[in-house]
């Protein structure tokens, strides 16, 4: 697992030992950032279910101004901490050992341009997180929520209002969903 573009291009990331995390593959990560394009520049990033920090660190490498990474698993938290330190991006990031839902309810005044959601597959966590986000103004008016699911999971069946699915992409067993506010 490596950073694929930007200032940190080619640098390696440590993975969490064991099988409890599933880092986003370089192929999927490349596709996500190709879709996001210039939106990454100077963006404020929230990475819920951060795992290894892969997505937030890639965003920082590509020009994001700051990132908040939220992870409740202690081993994953420790891995993210090491990745942030080794890559020298601690000053642009804030790492929290916390449940994603607790973060949302405890930080209602935070606003982000990009929100990454990459929880464990097939646990219906993304619809629940979207529901929790609805009660707050976490996303800037032109911001994007990027959600990863298993290919056979369907977010379109749920009530996403005030967000709408603007784009999807399938890569092997992964499906990526891009959501924005309906009024944009």
TrEMBL record:
- InterPro entries the UniProt entry points to: DNA_methylase_N6_adenine_CS, RNA_MeTrfase_RsmD, SAM-dependent_MTases_sf
| Database matches in Pfam families | Cons_hypoth95 (PF03602)
Q: Would you say which domain of life the source belongs to?
A: Bacteria
- Is Methyltransferase one of the keywords? yes
**Would the keyword Aminoacyl-tRNA synthetase be found if you checked this record's keyword annotation?**
no
GO terms (molecular function) for this protein are: methyltransferase activity; nucleic acid binding
Q: Which keywords belong to this entry?
A: Methyltransferase, Transferase
Q: What CDD domains does this protein's entry cite?
A: AdoMet_MTases
A single BP term in Gene Ontology: rRNA methylation
Q: What is the protein name for this chain?
A: RNA methyltransferase, RsmD family
Where does this protein come from, organism-wise?
Desulfosporosinus orientis (strain ATCC 19365 / DSM 765 / NCIMB 8382 / VKM B-1628 / Singapore I)
């Amino acid at each position: 697992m490596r950073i694929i573009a930007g200032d940190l291009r080619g640098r390696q990331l440590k993975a969490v030992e064991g099988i409890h995390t599933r880092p986003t593959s370089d192929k999927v990560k490349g596709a996500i950032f190709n879709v996001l394009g210039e939106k990454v520049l100077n963006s404020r990033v929230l990475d819920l279910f951060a795992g290894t920090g892969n997505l937030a660190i890639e965003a920082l490498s590509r020009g994001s101004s700051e990132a908040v990474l939220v992870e409740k698993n202690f081993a994953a938290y420790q891995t993210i901490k090491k990745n942030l330190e080794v890559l020298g991006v601690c000053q642009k990031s804030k790492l929290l050992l916390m449940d994603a839902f607790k973060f949302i309810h405890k930080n209602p005044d935070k606003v982000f341009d990009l929100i990454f959601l990459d929880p464990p597959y097939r646990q219906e966590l993304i619809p629940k997180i979207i529901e929790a986000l609805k009660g707050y103004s976490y996303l800037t008016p032109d911001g994007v929520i990027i959600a990863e699911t298993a290919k056979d999971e369907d977010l379109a069946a749920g009530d996403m209002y005030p967000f709408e699915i603007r784009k999807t992409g399938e890569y092997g067993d992964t499906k990526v969903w891009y959501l924005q506010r309906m009024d944009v």
